[in-house]
Write a structure and sequence with these properties.
The complex is a heterodimer of chains A (714) and B (199).
Chain A lengths: L1 E10 L2 E8 L4 E5 L6 H12 L13 H5 L6 E12 L2 E13 L6 E3 L3 E8 L2 E6 H8 L2 H4 L3 E3 L10 H11 L5 H24 L2 H75 L4 H7 L8 H41 L14 H10 L14 H23 L8 H20 L1 H39 L5 H5 L6 H39 L4 H44 L7 E6 L5 E6 L5 E2 L3 H23 L5 E4 L7 H13 L4 E5 L3 E5 L2 E4 L1 H7 L4 E7 L13 E5 L2
Parallel strand pairs in A: 3-14, 3-17, 9-13, 13-14
Antiparallel strand pairs in A: 1-2, 1-4, 4-5, 5-6, 5-7, 7-8, 10-11, 11-12, 15-16, 17-18
Chain B lengths: L12 H6 L4 E3 L1 H10 L20 H15 L9 E3 L21 H13 L4 H6 L4 H29 L9 H24 L6
Antiparallel strand pairs in B: 1-2
The chains are: A alpha+beta (714), B mainly alpha (199).
Chain lengths: 714, 199
């Protein structure tokens, strides 16, 4: 099976119709966290789940729902077009959803799972689940979709080896023949015994030996039954221990995650507390709204200063004019002939005093001795002048009836005192924004980390299905008892196998003795037939054992080939695959001296991947069939250099591999990533590359605004 | 800076202005003010659960006034008008709601802005040729026209996105470009006032 395209419609963040053209080799789908990688994986997982049920509301795109009016209908659909044995097919899983009339919910239809055979005459519909099982067997699918590095441990499951041998063994039908030859040999032996017992001469002896054989056979059956029971028990213990060991590891990891989560959430709370983003309130309460007031205060100052200046001038002019007017009026009253008098200040005080001192009017030249009329005239004029000055101050009314301008000027002075602080407000606003942005960036990073830890927790939980987070967080029972019981079982199995071997030997000896009695009697022929069937049965038994051993060796050899490819110029050890006493497949890395290696995460991942690739290659060789491999984030633990080598090697494998990953992304800002085109060009991959991103803008608190956008990069 | 009233002196222009009510277009009450502020639920029943940052309706008015002031755009009130029933002198006094701070000082600057931007013959006012009531009415008209322009700007924002003001930085996003422009022109003005370098 080779997938040609994947179509996803209204499945979670994939809103509307979305299509990926899938390369026969590598297809890379690159996206950061939350951009739609896991949704793509889940869409494929959902499609490959043939058990159709209606609990599918959870996969409906919220954005697609939000865009519907009450009563309107849309559909969720995931489909693949693929080639299988030179024919083209399509598998489509879909259901429709309708927004309820009250706009509060959606109604969904039953799931439609349809397959199509693409023929020249058109599409021929068929049952989708059956077509999928025929072209992409459920057991193979087990080794096809891998979400994260932990999921690769599926290879350690008990059923894996049985499945692989059953699928790939050249003599996988031998078990049926073994059972038949066993039955046939038993029937022949019974006929042999009957024939011998009919001979009166040997009857007593043959009856005794027959009873002994029957006793031994009965004990053999009991022990074989015991062996089967013990093998089952040991297998159960192994399964339980595996689960507990996994859970135990998971428990420790979960506790570590939880403690990290607690720390991160504490930091987030602190960070949130430092963000003062209630800008609207701060505009008023902190007077930030005055950030643009400075030019207007300038206008105010200018206007008030101008008004004040004009006020002073007007008042001054008024006072001066009013004084003059009064003096003139006074002098005018004193001239007898009614002529216009000189201004009261002419001649001025200084000259009048000089004239009185010199006893002469220096205006007309008339002598003015003391007591003369002229002297008196000058003296009166001086007094009138001096009096006019006093009168003016006393009598002139205030020119302005109001004093608002001085009030405004006083305000201006007070504003000026505060100007320095007001001028800083705009800078204060900018600083506050900058501070908050920097805290928000920190907050986003913390939230990303929290999301990552929570995602890791979910993945961890998926590794130990049925075990709740709470259970994982509590301490697990210790494994001593389970291991003890398993060891006891294994010992018992070994003893039983020895005992069975001995019983089988004893029975064979007894039969040989019995056969001797049959010599030269008609029973001899049955004896020979029984021997022949036993030989055949043993041949099948050893063939099965050899087949299993050879298969494991072959798998190991191919897996090591891939391990070498995936770890060029790096330490890798050798993959060792074996069946444990319960029959489960065990995969480990061994050193040159045969000791087991405890690999780092990246090496462990490449070990499991090598076995997966080997399984895929064996499928191709032995079943003339191929299937795609879909990995979600398989390189999380890889260093950058290792990751580059990994993709380069994967690209050159003759396998259809789809990888969804956040590799090749460079962070350029909070939650902003650029595709590393340079690195992609450097790798010069043959495969196709897609970028998936969230459509912007979106509301980070509203899932109904989230949509994944697909761009083909190469 | 508010000047206390001296019983021996006539009332100040500020105090006369502060006793006045301001007005807004009745239509804007539902379409803008109630959409942004917790207007109408009483001063003590501030309902932050509804997502309102602002309490009294006059707070929307103040922000709208500054938008119009900074943009230097006025829009006369059309149709029926309404007041908040709370004269300027009470704006920004000690808030009864948690977490808020009084901002009575803002009134001083609003007053200064009104003086700066209202065409009043201050000398005629001084002489008594212009009544103080007419002068203060002109100042209130200035405020109302600036605020009315601002309120219509807010209405446009709400028409584009009815959730616009649920974001705490929405008002700031309106003010920032205005601040930038005004501060730029102010800085240029200040620079040109500097004596030439002797170098």
């Amino acid at each position: 099976m080779r997938i040609q395209s994947i179509e996803i419609k209204n499945f979670r963040s994939y809103v509307g119709q979305n299509r990926f053209e899938i390369n026969p080799g590598l297809t890379l789908i690159i996206g950061a966290n939350g951009e739609g990688k896991t949704n793509l994986y889940d869409a494929m997982d959902w499609l490959f789940e043939t058990n159709v049920h209606n609990d599918s509301k959870r996969v409906v795109s919220k954005k697609a729902v939000a865009s519907l009016n009450p009563g309107e209908t849309e559909e969720v659909m995931v489909a693949i077009d693929f080639e299988h044995n030179d024919s083209k097919y399509r598998i489509e899983k879909s259901f429709s959803f309708t927004k309820t009339d009250d706009d509060s919910d959606i109604r969904i239809s039953p799931i439609n799972f349809t397959g199509y055979l693409e023929e020249a005459s058109g599409r021929v519909p068929t049952d989708g689940a059956r077509l999928l099982d025929n072209c992409f067997n459920a057991s193979i699918r087990h080794f096809s979709l891998m979400a994260g590095e932990e999921s690769l441990k599926v290879l350690n499951q008990h059923s894996t080896l049985q499945y692989l041998i059953h699928t790939f063994s050249a003599i996988r039908h031998a078990e049926k023949f073994t059972a038949f030859t066993k039955l046939a040999s038993e029937l022949a032996q019974r006929a042999n015994q009957n024939a011998i017992s009919k001979n009166a001469k040997n009857k007593r002896e043959s009856d005794r030996m027959t009873r002994e054989i029957e006793d031994l056979t009965s004990r053999l059956r009991q022990q074989q039954s015991q062996l089967r029971n013990k093998q089952n028990e040991a297998r159960n213990y192994a399964t339980q221990i595996d689960a507990i060991v996994n859970s135990s590891e998971a428990s420790a990891e979960m506790r570590a995650f939880e403690s990290r989560l607690e720390k991160l959430k504490g930091e987030r709370a602190q960070c949130q507390a430092r963000i003062h983003e209630n800008y609207t309130v701060a505009l008023l309460d902190d007077l930030l709204v005055l950030g643009g007031i400075m030019p207007i205060l300038g206008e105010y100052s200018q206007k008030v200063a101008e008004a004040e200046r004009r006020r002073r001038k007007e008042e001054h002019d008024y006072i001066r004019k009013e004084g003059e007017r009064k003096a003139i009026k006074k002098i005018k009253l004193e001239l007898e002939n009614g002529a216009t008098p000189l201004p009261i200040y002419a001649p001025d005080e200084k000259f009048m005093r000089e004239m009185l001192h010199d006893h002469i009017c220096k205006v007309c030249g008339t002598p003015a001795p003391e007591g003369s009329a002229a002297y008196k005239y000058i003296q009166d004029k001086l007094n009138a002048y001096l009096k006019s000055l006093i009168n003016e101050e006393e009598e002139t009314k205030a020119y302005f009836t109001n004093s608002y301008i001085p009030q405004l000027a006083k305000r201006e002075t007070l504003i000026n005192n505060e100007k320095a602080d007001i001028a800083k407000i705009f800078q204060q606003v900018q600083d506050l924004i900058e501070f908050n942005e920097s805290r928000k960036k920190q907050l986003r990073m913390l939230e990303e980390n929290i999301a990552q830890v929570e995602e890791d927790q979910r993945k961890l939980q998926a590794r130990v299905p049925g075990v709740s987070k709470e259970v994982l967080l509590n301490n697990f029972v210790n494994l001593t008892n389970w291991n003890k019981y398993k060891s006891e079982c294994e010992l018992k199995i070994v003893n039983l196998e020895h005992s069975i071997d001995k019983l089988e030997y004893d029975i064979a000896q007894k039969r040989e003795g019995l056969n001797k009695l049959a010599k030269n009697t008609p029973a001899a022929i049955y004896s020979k037939i029984a021997d022949a069937f036993v030989c055949i049965q043993n041949a099948f038994k050893s063939a099965l054992i050899r087949n299993k051993t050879e298969f494991i060796l072959e798998l190991e050899k191919v897996a090591n080939k891939y391990l070498a490819k995936l770890n060029v110029e790096d330490f890798k050890g050798t993959i060792h695959i074996y069946a444990d006493v319960t029959g489960a497949m065990r995969i480990s890395l061994i050193d040159a001296d045969g000791t087991t290696i405890d690999p780092n995460k990246a090496l462990e991942t490449t070990m499991y991947m090598s076995v997966l690739f080997a399984v895929s290659e064996l499928t191709e060789i032995k079943k003339d069939d191929e299937y795609p491999l879909l990995f979600d984030a398989p390189t999380s633990s890889f260093a950058v250099g290792k990751e580059k080598d990994f993709f380069r090697i994967i690209d050159n494998l003759d396998k259809q591999i789809i990888i969804v990953t956040k590799s090749f992304l460079q962070e350029i800002g909070p939650n902003k990533y650029n595709l590393d085109h340079k690195l992609l060009e450097e790798l010069n991959l043959n495969g196709s590359v897609y970028r998936i991103e969230k459509q912007k803008p979106f509301d980070d608190k509203n899932q109904a605004t989230i949509q994944t956008i697909i761009t083909k990069v190469r | 800076m508010a000047i206390e009233k001296d019983p021996t002196t006539p009332e100040t222009l500020y105090n006369i202005w502060a006793k006045r009510n301001v007005y807004f277009e009745v239509d804007l009450e539902e379409s803008v003010i109630r959409k942004i502020a917790d207007y109408g639920s009483g001063a003590t029943s501030y309902n932050s659960a509804k997502g309102f940052s602002l309490g009294g309706g006059y707070e929307v008015y103040i922000l709208a006034f500054f938008i119009g002031l900074y943009a230097n755009k006025r829009r006369p009130i059309e149709g029926d008008k309404k007041s908040f029933g709370q004269p300027i002198q009470y704006w920004g006094n000690l808030e009864k709601r948690c977490g808020r701070k009084p901002y009575s000082k803002l009134r001083d600057y609003m007053f200064a802005a009104c003086i700066a931007r209202t065409d009043i013959d201050l000398l005629a006012l001084e002489r008594g040729d212009l009544s103080v009531s007419a002068a203060v009415s002109a100042m209130i008209t200035t405020m109302d026209e600036y605020a009315n322009y601002g309120l219509h700007q807010l209405l446009d924002k709400l028409d584009d996105d009815k959730h616009f003001f649920t974001n705490n930085s929405s008002f700031l996003s309106i003010f920032i470009p205005l601040f930038k422009e005004l501060n730029q022109s102010y800085d240029n003005l200040e620079d040109s006032d500097q004596p030439e370098s002797l170098d």
